[in-house]
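Re: that chain you flagged

S.,

Sorry for the slow reply, it's been a week of failed gels. I finally had a moment to sit down with the sequence you sent. For the record, here it is as I used it:
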Amino acid sequence: MKRFYLLPIMACAASPAFAQDLNLSGPPGAAPVPIQITASQGITWSQDAQTVTANGNAKAVRGDVTVTADELVAHYIKKTLSGSQPASSKPDTSAGTGNASPLDQGSSQLTELDAIGHVHVYSTTDNAWGDRAVYSVGQQVLILTGKNLKLTTRQDVVTARDSIEYYAAEHKAIARGNALILASDGRSIAADVITGYFENPANDSNQTQAMAQNADTLSQGGSLKRVEAVGHVVIKTATDTATGDRGVYLPPTGQARLGGNVHIIHGQNELAGSDALVNMKTGVATLLAAPGGQVSGIILPGSGKAK
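Prediction finished late last night. Pasting the structure tokens below so you have them in one place:
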């Protein structure tokens, strides 16, 4: 097993709760921690391309975050040392360990890490899978693509067809293409694109205690404060199914609002209108009419809460 170490200069922007768990930049404000890369088939260092490529059961570990793949490619740039002294063109192997010593000892900076084939990114709480992952160090962006895209957290499972993306500095995550958030209690939100926005952890010191006291699993996804869904939106509770063209869900209150060609189905009841309010905690759905319009539907007396 060969090893390689990369010590990047990481940005210090805070990141969203579950995205932070899979963020290779580490905790905001923390000292840089080396990324250790191992592989079973070999590690190739290219001066011209400024890359380090690990092949065969490749693994990159930084803190609590691990990335495994068939192949890992680390891209770096050379830095100018103090006094305008040019950076060394070779890694320092003077340690005599038989492995390459840290690439970044003030002379190089990691810019991007690519994972290719059977990608698994995980921490102690979260897991993400895909065929390819690209992590941009400077932008703190992780993009997963490929088949069978999946993210699991303590409370929710997120799947998507096209990509699952983390924007740590912007405190948001995006699932694209047949996106689905499924809570452990069976409630779900599906849409063409789902975007989750998170509180800044620095402003969220009481979040852990609040989550422990909150039985709403969709509200426990870290410090998730807002979910926006666009295109073929479907919200399901234990009793109701609500559909529309777009929707907004606020985990702190459990309220969701749907707009555009809204339908609510509860048992044999079906209502249609322009907008709807859905309480994800109670399962109560309220249909709203557009100005000057009206709602329509079929109601069986005593058959449900939809109104």
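What I noticed first: The chain is about 5% helix and 50% strand.

Talk soon,
D.
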